[in-house]
Design goal:
Layout lengths: L11 H12 L5 H5 L18 H16 L14 H4 L20 H15 L9 E4 L3 H7 L1 E10 L6 E10 L5 E7 L2
Length: 184
């Protein structure tokens, strides 16, 4: 599509087309490298662009990976290796399996999860991210399940979009069941 008319001036239509192409969301590198249709020889130009819903589902999937992976800092002291803390070598969160509810400092745990999300999920705007315990004190004594809300904004064009996820942490297994709750 030509963005200039015969005189060489940029046209409004051409500039709008260029801006629209720039504003489309692109999938993460892993998703771009994954061939979901191996029998197709060519991919359409639109196949490299995604919708906001697809982006939100990809972020949810990737957050599940982060939150259900035990980081290396759980077993090794990283005080001498400050840069390793924020590197992919330390991917994940501290182990919660086998801990009692009374042993957990909620503020530290919220901050630990928030830090892991900031380090390993760049599509979430760090200054918008909030992680909060939402478990009822009475339910904690019986179920050994801790509930968290994760809310913030996803980087999108032309403007960031809000999200709200909720996770239940089973303290016996350490598994986090992250679910989408919609927009914040």
């Amino acid at each position: 599509m030509d963005m200039e008319d015969i005189s060489g001036k940029r046209t409004a239509f051409g500039m709008r087309e260029r801006r629209a192409a720039k504003d489309r969301l692109q999938p993460a590198l892993l998703d771009r490298l994954t061939d979901n249709e191996p029998l197709k020889k060519k991919e359409s130009r639109d196949s490299v662009m995604i919708t906001y819903d697809t982006l939100r589902h990809a972020v949810l999937r990737d957050l599940r990976w982060v939150l259900n992976t035990v980081n290396i800092e759980t077993v090794d002291d990283l005080d001498a290796f400050a840069q390793v803390r924020s590197s992919t070598v330390n991917f994940g969160v501290e182990a919660l399996a086998g801990r009692r509810m009374s042993e957990i400092d909620w503020v530290d745990m919220e901050q630990s999860i928030k830090t892991a999300i900031i380090h390993f999920e760049p599509r979430i705007l760090a200054d918008s991210l909030e992680v909060a315990c939402v478990s009822e004190v009475t339910s904690l004594e019986h179920h050994n399940v801790l509930s968290l809300e994760i809310r913030g904004k996803l980087w999108c064009n032309p403007y960031p979009r809000e999200f709200l996820f909720r996770t239940d942490i089973d303290l016996e297994s350490g598994h986090m069941d992250l679910q989408e709750q919609g927009a914040a």
